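User: structure tokens for this one?
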Amino acid sequence: MPNKGTIIKSGISGMVLVVLLFFVMSPKVSTSYAPVPKLKTQCPPGFKKNKNNECMAINLYQQYDSPHDNGVGGLQTGLPEIRDGFSPQEIDLGRYLFFDPVLSGNQTISCATCHDPGKGFSDGMATSTGMNGEKGTRSAPTLWNVGYLKKLFWDGRSKSLEDQMQEPLFAHNEMDNTPENLLQSLNAIENYRSLFAEAYPERPKAQAIALDEIYTALAGFQASLVSLNSRYDQYAHGYHDALTLNEIEGLNVFRSFVARCAECHTPPLFTNQQFAVIGTPEPNGLPLDPGAQVPFQDSTLRGAFKVPSLRNIAKTAPYMHSGRFETLREAVEFYTKGRGHAVPEGEDLIIHWHIWEPDLSDTELDRLVDFLKTLTDESFTPQIPEQLPSGLEPAL
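Assistant:
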């Protein structure tokens, strides 16, 4: 496309000037950059393409019949159903969108700003910072294995990835965009128009990019973030030497009736996807976060939060919904200090019955930390795009 100066000098018709002014006044992104590569036609690791061009999850846990929601179970327990069936092209388009700051209102932050693959798809902060330095109220949860989760956000207020992502996209203290501006931004970029046509070949190529297509592509990418090949997984599948003696001792503490960690952080997903009131302290000076009480309008859920997965937990400090604990050692020690010991004065919370007084020794706490570090697996970490369709730099 000619630049503004060339068009003005050429004395072309007013109609072309109107079109030009639309792009000039649109968001600060050029409409034409060097074309990005075609979208990938192969599924990401951990998925196999079927004859319908759908990426279906495949992993060793699928060989186990033991139900995932039947108590603690053994090591060889099945996983819940994953969100799969996206095309390779949808997933790859979602990868570009995930790292592209064009999705934010002022084009300075991306989804990856709060969900950095180098930090376990979290951000290393107690509470996240959005556009213009706006502080959030809760920590950014990891996105590893998010395709298996049935409730999203710490308070479980969303049931789908497509629904969940709209809040950070359009919240003033996060990405601060609007649906109208998001559509205008992407439709003004020739690269994105071409890639969306490639990812959704059934619709007319000239059709404008739609919100549902944006949400679906991002959901496909996030659901592809699978982490199931840690040293723990190798041990669970029968390779005993994958863990050291200290780590095995930590696993035994984790699964014991005394510590009871596994009853909420149930393998192999390391969450039972339920809510729990554990009475974790808020940062100094902040009032109690009511948690799931608000979206579910249920006073018994006051201070309740969704049990997070512990996958890649060593990469996602600080811990708890408010990032209250800096280290894993602090986090595990919280559970052995007595039932409800950190509940603010004047609050009468219904603490989960698993949170009692296990009175674990320092050695047992150390072994727990040793074990938790075996849940790290980043072998399927996706590649950060070297070039974005918008021409902007990837925002982390």
